[in-house]
Amino acid sequence: MERRQDYKGNNISEETTLDWRGKPSNSLKHGGMKAAAFVLGVQGFEIMAIAAVGNNLITYVINEMHFSLSKSANVVTNFIGTVFLLALLGGYLSDSYLGCFWTMLIFGFVELSGFILLSVQAHLPQLKPPNCNMLTDGEHCVEAKGLKALIFFTALYLVALGSGCVKPNMIAHGADQFNYQDNPKQTKQLSRYFNAAYFAFSMGELIALTVLVWVQTRSGMDLGFGISAAAMAMGLISLVGGTLFYRNKPPQGSIFTPMAQVFMAAFSKRKEVCPSDARVLHGSHSIKGPNSNATISDDMGILHHTNQFRFLDKACIKVQDGNSTKESPWKLCTVTQVEQVKILISVIPIFACTIVFNTILAQLQTFSVQQGSSMNTKLTKSFHIPPASLQAIPYIILIFLVPLYDTFFVPFARKITGHDSGVTPLQRIGLGLFVATFSMVSAALMEYKRRNAAVNFDKTLSIFWITPQFLIFGVSEMFTAVGLIEFFYKQSVKGMQSFLTAITYCSYSFGFYLSSVLVSLVNKITSNSSHGGWLSDNNLNKDRLDLFYWLLAVLSFLNFFNYLFWARWYSRNRSSSSSATIQHDFISKVAGDDSIA
């Protein structure tokens, strides 16, 4: 560890980064956008591979594995939910033991093996149920069971394990190439990197949802899965290609131990009374910040004592028992250690507010694809649009919108707000949550129109009628997804950037799991003796998908106001620390608070 000083002359720690040989990195040779470009290559190829599988998986599960519509939707949402839940494992292994590079390399090969196994099963007839048309002969089709189902789910969850552990480290490793804490000029570059990462994500999604889905539809899923394997292999080549240029943050050991120590120490001293003067707490200094209760700690950088979650401060109380024996770290923690735990607790509500947002995303990858399957997909006399390719529509717009946002909007907003990213991460998240509601409103209106035309007039609408719901959600995702990643990555928790980034992916996981729960609950609540629930039939003309979309629109709107409350709460608590940057934004104004971190 090197030492440096803050603006008041206090010693604080500077985290050393390493090159590929394990020696301290050189800022002239390592890091920056040149190194991050290789990570962007990994992200583009990896999302291309996984998106081609995930976004058209429901078609494969129904047509080849012969699962029912609702069961197939749950297979897809559970798979995607597991991918993002396993991001926590990837973040933990990276920050604690392996580092970003080795975690991506190891689990990248795990993901590659899953794609290869999926391709083999899709190619060999003996590994699948007998051919059968689920639309016309659904009752007589044999569902995949036994060894066939085992091979399918093994391949699928090898992909989930690999992709889940790779995802948070792609973002974190790319962001690690910018020393934004010591070089203010790189703060703007970091913000640009987050936008570039979303651009790479959009490009990968676009190619997957057009070229790869078209190949799957025309030439078979076996070739489509094989191309996904090839794309993942290209991503691994890109990762290895940047080895000489990376700044690598070394793992810190178990990231959960310091947190566990805080809770154990606080519990063991639960009967102690917190002192009114925070300067007497272990790890504090006599220098006070602008806030009268804020003190500066230099164990891991500048972190100020805050008055939220005061019960945790008991972990910092020194017990005077006349014995000079040093207290165990499980009984006495520093202020910085406690404040890092407080930060983790304080961001949980922000994370939770994005779960409903990702439940909406789940519908666009399941039921909305089935909507498209029941519509007129003809573009010309000989060309039909694969329903799964509808999800490419927002990404076509976003590959133009994201560069415009970064080139024009961010500099313009920066002049007004003074924030390096133009707007704060919380502002981006809030705007995206608000816009997402209208995606479901559009979906509900269009599904009612489609169903009415099919049932009452025997008319099949063009597939382009449902494009607005994809377009609106794509715009909302540009704000919420990027804002959430930037918000978590910039939290002042040392050595946990990969794990914090993984938490953002857990929002996707919980959103997809919530989708499965909602589908089951809605079917159970809305069913009776005469007919099944809103989503119980394999025929959308008999289901009431429009009502389900309206339910999600209401939940999304209520969730937005819930977010405003927690954004205000977070802002008010973090503004009590002088290390927080105080901003004014629309969330605070609507919620009745003028400060935002």
From TrEMBL:
TM stretches of this protein: 35-55, 75-93, 100-120, 149-172, 193-217, 223-246, 343-364, 392-413, 425-446, 466-487, 499-522, 547-566
Transmembrane listed as a keyword: yes
Residues in coiled coil: none
Compartments, as annotated in UniProt: Membrane
One GO CC term, this protein: membrane
UniProt GO molecular function: transmembrane transporter activity
Superkingdom per UniProt: Eukaryota
Pfam families xrefs: PTR2 (PF00854)
Topology of this chain in the membrane: Multi-pass membrane protein
Entry-linked PANTHER family: OLIGOPEPTIDE TRANSPORTER-RELATED (PTHR11654)
Family to which the UniProt record says this protein belongs: Belongs to the major facilitator superfamily. Proton-dependent oligopeptide transporter (POT/PTR) (TC 2.A.17) family. Belongs to the major facilitator superfamily. Phosphate:H(+) symporter (TC 2.A.1.9) family.
The protein, known as: Protein nrt1 ptr family 4.3
Organism classification: Eukaryota, Viridiplantae, Streptophyta, Embryophyta, Tracheophyta
Gene: NPF4.3_0
